[in-house]
Amino acid sequence: MLRLYNTLSRSVEDFKSIKPLSVGLYSCGPTVYDNQHIGHIKRYIGDDVLVKVLKANGYNVKHVMNITDVGHLVSDEDTGEDKMEKGAKKYGMSVWDIAKKFEKQFWDSIDAVGITRPTEIMHATDYIPDQIALVKILEEKGYTYEIPGDGIYFDTSKFPTYFALSRQNPEELKKGARVDFIEGKRNVADFALWKFSFTSKGEPRRQMEWWFGGPLEGKLSTSENWNQVPTEFREKVGFPGWHIECSAMSLRALTDFFSANLPYVQSYLTPQVKNLQTIDIHTGGIDHIAIHHTNEIAQSEAATGEKFVNYWVHHNFLIVDGEKMSKSLGNFYTVQDVVAKGYDPLALRYLILQTHYRQEMNFTWESLDAAQTALERLRSVILNESEGSLVHDHTWMKKFMEALNDDLNTAKALSVMWEMVKDQDLLPGEIQGTLLEMDKILGLNLKLNPKSQIPNLKIPEEVQSLISEREAFRKAGDFGAADEIRNKIADLGFTVEDKLEGPVITKK
Q1: Is residue 213 exposed (0-12), middle (13-18) or buried (19+ Cβ within 10 Å)?
Q2: Which of 186, 392, 420, 490 would disulfide-bridge 437, Cβ 3.0–4.6 Å?
Q3: How far apart are CA 287 and CA 301, in angstroms?
Q4: Which of 216, 238, 241, 218 is nearest to 229 (CA)?
Q5: pLDDT at 261 over 50
Q6: Confidence class for position 501, pLDDT limits 50, 70, 90
Q7: Are 44 and 30 in contact (CB under 8 A)?
Q8: How far is Cα 279 from Cα 277, in angstroms, rounded to an integer?
């Protein structure tokens, strides 16, 4: 039986789905305003393992992930810029183009490290009416208040179990845990459900705005159609809070709270609830516990009157050389950086699997060297042990699954795998067969010939710079300039091969 650590109870529990052999799983997805780094990817590899383990235990999994393309402010205090607006200014692009650019980088990274894409992918901007509906329901139930010129807020004092997930002390919060206290907030933990674009401070309008109030609510407002907005509704034109999107989309995809046949917001005010069900599993990073997921629980349970999620699964951070990853420290790495340095991206997956998802992981290039060597050894076993029929050994598979069913202990599962490889009582075909069966969960693509993979190169900085410059030309569609740079790289003794996961560099 699968056992999972539940952040809500702070204990490892036997997993029991709401419906027999059927699981609804919601993953907090990326905010697509900039590149996703390898720390982000660590979490999604963890989610991928969870989904694969559930399936190995016979469950049918509906895995839903959101793409945050609006509403995520740079602070947790409901102040500052929307991250999408910030990214647009940084790169000199529209917010819509920024979203497309960095969503592609995210999916390229996901594909490169062998993650199976979710069953359903939901963009926040596609579900604004659902988010408005949820805010209106909370208003009807008396959980909200309005700060003129700022937004609509959730009153946490009306939700007695607000701190159940985070286990924070509200008195400690008052002492400065959330420093930027917005004037007009009733309680320090109260949070924005909807932010108004216009404030008393005269802040500029945003690129993404929607109606809130009136017959046209839910319709995107732009400079072209601004004059269509009735004067009495203009002060509430704005955008959703980050937290409300996940509640609206998870309830939409995994419960019966919203009726699929009711397209207009007005209809949601009296939702037709049919067999309302709680979501089985919700995942995210440990940084989501104190605020984002705590707020999701409050607004969802206040709206539905039901338990929101049964199992909360949170992944710990990845640090680099003992320090927090930061562009200012020069230790901010993406999957594309890993590939550009000559590593197989699945070596990164192997490295991440060596650390339990609830433990902090320390990334070093030396550890990635070792992971790549180990991966190539495993692929060599598949390549060389060619005699005998491919069958898996049930005893070793049982040990392997016992490790994974013990709160997704991938480090122990890898250890079991290596013990199996060294078992001299197994026939070659049994070793191969068992390895491939284990790989259905590990996702290391062990069938790949190691000789065809990226060698462990130490690429000179000059070549790395040329590779980055060439990629920029390719993305801009200037393939002539890209070919010229390829020739320069060749003159320095390296060749470039373009693959889905990025440029593959080999020494001539």
Answers
A1: middle
A2: 392
A3: 21
A4: 216
A5: no
A6: very low
A7: no
A8: 7
